[in-house]
Design a protein that fits this description.
With about 270 residues, the chain is of the alpha+beta class. The chain has 3 domains: about 1-115; about 115-200; about 200-270, 3-Layer(aba) Sandwich (Glutaredoxin). The chain contains 13 helices and 4 strands. It has helices spanning about 5-20, 25-45, 45-50, 60-70, 75-85, 95-115, 120-135, 135-145, 150-160, 165-175, 185-200, 215-230, 260-270; strands at about 200-210, 230-240, 245-250, 255. The chain has a 4-stranded mixed sheet, with helices on both faces. A hairpin with a 2-residue loop joins strand 3 (about 245-250) and strand 4. Helix 7 (about 120-135) crosses helix 10 (about 165-175), helix 7 (about 120-135) packs antiparallel against helix 11 and helix 10 (about 165-175) crosses helix 11 (about 185-200). The longest helix has 22 residues, at about 95-115. The protein is elongated. The chain starts with a helix and ends with a helix. Pfam families: OSCP. One of its GO terms (molecular function) is proton-transporting ATP synthase activity, rotational mechanism. It comes from Micromonospora rhizosphaerae. This is ATP synthase subunit delta. InterPro entries: ATP_synth_OSCP/delta_N_sf (IPR026015), ATPase_OSCP/dsu (IPR000711).
Length: about 270
């Protein structure tokens, strides 16, 4: 987002935080669903996006337009938060869409946090991503941008029924619609990181040839926490092709100590002789 859009989003996010402090988890979840439904509407209706972000209109005029369109279709709390969004200045209509979607996601994560389930939601999102990545046919089906999003969401709901929390399933649906303009895989990764960030944690993606024991994972997490000055949420991927050792990615930092990397380096060095 550009500066004006970031400032407008910040105002709405602060209002969301104030609302969450005094609301029940179920009420926050319902508000989140309303906001995400409006994000879906904005995605389908580019003319509406343009009208609600038009700098030639006053903030009051844009709020009036929003209220007239939504009527009684969303709750009062969602409408108040959406009004905070559209009354601000947006650098582009697409940034209003991104801001609306992000606000709905943050509300959903906040509802899980208040219910004491945010850590589980974070893990469920990551594990679902791992399951999808391990089945090329499923991955292609869920990532297909041509297939209707609702059909793909229906498949995801079937797969997750009884295995994941409602907040997780709703977030997967958001990912399938291309959260923030990302691919399905990229959107899932971003949602995992937002969930961790709300818990004031950094995500470390760890690739190993064989699963780490609980104690090994704990020690690795403690070492990374000391390095980054923040609690670290370790996410393991088992890939026998790395042969041994550990690869760790934290943000843009990559620490690759795998046997595969060393073999590749040796092969490249021999090829240059």
């Amino acid at each position: 987002m550009q500066a004006a859009s970031r400032e407008s989003y910040k105002v709405a996010a602060e209002r969301l935080d104030a609302y969450v402090r005094g609301a029940e988890p179920s009420a926050v979840a319902s508000t989140a669903d309303d906001i995400l439904s409006v994000a879906d509407l904005l995605r389908r209706e580019p003319r509406l996006r343009r009208a609600l972000s038009d700098p030639a209109r006053s903030g009051e005029d844009r709020v009036g337009l929003l209220t007239g369109i939504l009527g009684g279709n969303v709750g009062a709390d969602a409408l108040d938060l959406l009004a905070a969004l559209v009354s601000g200045r947006w650098s582009a209509p697409s940034e209003l869409l991104d801001g609306t979607e992000r606000l709905g996601v943050e509300a959903l994560l906040a509802s899980a946090d208040k219910a004491g389930e945010l850590g589980e939601v974070e893990d469920e999102l990551f594990r679902f991503g791992q399951v999808v990545a391990g089945q090329p046919g499923l991955s292609n089906t869920l990532s297909d941008p041509i297939a209707p999003a609702e059909r793909r969401a229906g498949l995801a709901r079937e797969l997750l029924a009884g295995k994941a929390r409602p907040a997780t399933i709703r977030l997967v649906e958001v990912a399938l619609r291309g959260f923030g303009g990302r691919s399905f895989t990229g959107a899932l990764t971003r949602l995992v990181e937002l969930a961790a960030d709300r818990r004031d944690r950094q995500v470390a993606y760890v690739t190993v040839a064989a699963p780490l024991s609980d104690e090994e994972e704990r020690r690795l997490g403690a070492r990374l926490s000391a390095m980054y000055g923040r609690e670290v949420s370790v996410k393991q991927t088992v890939d026998p092709e790395v042969l041994g050792g550990v690869s760790v990615r934290v943000g843009s930092d990559l620490y690759d100590g795998t046997v595969l990397r060393r073999l590749n380096e040796t092969r490249n060095a021999l090829a240059k002789r």
